[in-house]
Amino acid sequence: MSSIRISIPETAEAGEVIEIKTLIQHPMESGFGRGARGQVIPRDIIQTFTCDYNGTTVFEAKFFPSTAANPFLTFFTRATKSGALTFTWTDLVGETWVETRNLIVSE
Amino acid sequence: MRASLIILALAIVGCSQQTNQPNANYETLDEVISGYAFLQPETQALQDDEFSNPGYLWVDKGEALFNEPAANGQSCASCHTDEDRSLIGASTHFPKYDERAGTLINIEGRINLCRVTHQSVPKLEYESEHLLALTTYVANLSKGSRVAGELSPKVQSNYDNGQAYFNMRRGQFNLSCAQCHDDNAGKSLRGDTISQGHSNGFPTYRLEWQTLGSLHKRFQYCDIGVRAEPLPGGSQTYIDLEYFLANRGRGLQVETPAVRR
After folding, report:
1. Is B180 a catalytic residue?
2. Which residues of A touch B61 (CB under 8 A)?
3. Residue A1: what pLDDT?
4. Is A72–B60 a contact, with Cβ atoms under 8 angstroms apart?
5. Which of A4, A94, B87, B95 gives 20 to 30 Å between its CA and that of B169?
6. What's the distance, CA B129 to chain centroid?
7. Whole-angstrom Cα distance, residue B54 to residue B211?
């Protein structure tokens, strides 16, 4: 069970630039670390993040080893129409976490 | 004029010495200062921001677990409703003597006791994600309240044991907790500033761990730091030490989930 936090305004004016913040719980194990008995800890990282706004990707990120645990992102997008924003994180083995938030845009 | 300046300068020096004065006995700590004050401004900002503070990932998870019914239909929230038996402020009284357990227990112990007696589910392992999340959630409910640090005669021996552990030199470095956290708080230890070693922010998100950890995990890291053999998390001696620290840090505000280096 990964814990996810998303900060996004519920409403916005058409054309307004809104700030979106996301935080996901993930160890982001680099693959270079070693455990207490000297064994290599396998790499376990989130590789991609996408934010889709009404089906169009508005923000995308790639992660690499050495990103700190529990990656935190802040980004901006322009509010155009009311609709859903879908946030997707995908890790190294293809596991995904998806969250959706609705945004109401007043014309 | 010159004389008054010198007196002023001496007064300032006197003040600064006052706050850094070493103390062997906690009762004479001039000022009880939270570990927050020893952090860099960036780390303080991370703790203060309720969104980006990573500790809130565990608060959220803990809240979900708190409301999740066990097989017998009982969740924590079934008893601890907002109106009745609310847990706001509860964590400030821990560790405390528990009549049913007949011993001194901390919040983790109390959660496990509730699980066994009311939910009929097994205890959670110490330092497990679920126990950490529940502890963080419950402690966070008391955020801003002050650590009560009540002394009870029933657990005087636990208090003495905790204080003895705090003052006992140990490990290859032959250092006690008190030598850093009483005598040298505010001074530098390599890249860090030594704090007074209070427990008011635990469970805490530590940047070094890249995760959230309990107070006992912090004790283990201190023990390893002086090259002593760490005790298992949840062991009675660590609970006694936790009890001593709650008294030593009496009056500090609960900061859970705090962010530390």
Report:
1. no
2. 1, 3, 25
3. 56
4. no
5. B95
6. 18
7. 8
Give the pLDDT confidence score for residue B30 in this predicted structure. 76
Candidates A24, A25, A72, partner chain B, best to mutate (most B CBs within 10 A): A25
Contact B211 A5 (CB under 8 A): no
ipTM of the modeled complex: 0.87
Closest CA to A96 of A53, A54, A32, A52: A52
How does DSSP classify residue A75? E
Q: Provide mean pLDDT across the span A34-49.
A: 93
The three-state DSSP-derived secondary structure of chain B is CHHHHHHHHHHHHHHHHHHHCCCCCHHHCCCCCCHHHHCCHHHHHHHHCCCCCCCHHHHHHHHHHHCCCCCCCCCHHHHCCCCCCCCCCHHHHCCEEECCCCEEECHHHHHHHHHHHHHCCCCCCCCCHHHHHHHHHHHHCCCCCECCCCCCHHHHHHHHHHHHHHHCCECCCCECHHHHHCCCCCCEECCEECCCCCCCCCCEEECCCCEEECHHHHHHHHHHHCCCCCCCCCCHHHHHHHHHHHHHCCCCECCCCEEEC
Provide the token pair at B29. 């700590």
- Closest-CA residue to A30 (of A16, A41, A17): A41
pLDDT digits (tens, 9 = 90+) for B50-59: 899 999 999 9
Q: Structure pTM? A: 0.86
